[in-house]
Structure formats: C-alpha cells, structure tokens
Amino acid sequence: MKRGFWIARAVKIVVIVAVALGVLGFFTMQLWNWLVPALFAGPVVTYWQALGLLVLARLLFGLRGHGRGHFGPWGHRGWQHWRERWERMTPEERAQFQQRFGQRWKGRCGSLDDRPPPADAPQA
Questions:
Q1: For a FRET experiment, which of 21, 41, 59, 74 has its CA 20 to 30 Å from that of 3?
Q2: What are 16-63's pLDDT values in tens digits?
Q3: What are the domain boundaries of the chain?
Q4: pTM of the entire structure?
C-alpha cells in the first residue's frame, strides 16, 4: 500500500513539474516575441528556444534560494541573528543603538514625528 502511494505521488510531482515547465516556456516565448523584436529588433523564438533560454538563465543566474532565503544573503537566519542580538542588549545599549541608527538614516526615511498618524489611531 505504501509503495503504491509513493509511486503515485512521484508520478503526480513529475506531471506537475512538466506542466509548470510547459506553461513557463510558453509564457517566456510569448513575452520574448512580444518585447524583443519590437524593442531591440531581435529574433523571434520558438517554444523550444524559449525553454532553452530558461535553462540558460538558470545556469547563468541561478534561482532564488540556495540558503539565502528571501531577505538577502542572511535569509531568515539573518533576521533571527539581529533579533537575538537585540534581546541580549541592555536597555542602555539599545538606546545607544537606536540613537546611532537614527543619526545614520536621518533624512533618508523621514522622522516618525513628521508622519501623519494612521487613520485608525485613537484621537487625543
């Protein structure tokens, strides 16, 4: 019973990947043929050439992930690192950090005091 379950699951995964690649290749071909010839006087590509472009892009640029997560080189671990570091700080170290951070980013992000209150904030 379990062996049949895993075989069915593997077949389902293979089918899903094949359909996803097919759809991705089709959309790549359509997008390329819509933009590149008009913008750069480039060639029109076939479906198989579009799939080849996807493989080439994967080889050259890779995909997101590979331990980096969604937030740069640290990934989710980086945020956890800063959270742990913040929790280890004394109140004086936190105040000093906030002061240095505020001085560094002053004028770039605006001051919290300059921003209007949220619409759902209670009125004083």
A1: 21
A2: 999 999 999 999 999 999 999 999 999 999 999 999 999 898 888 876
A3: 1-63
A4: 0.47
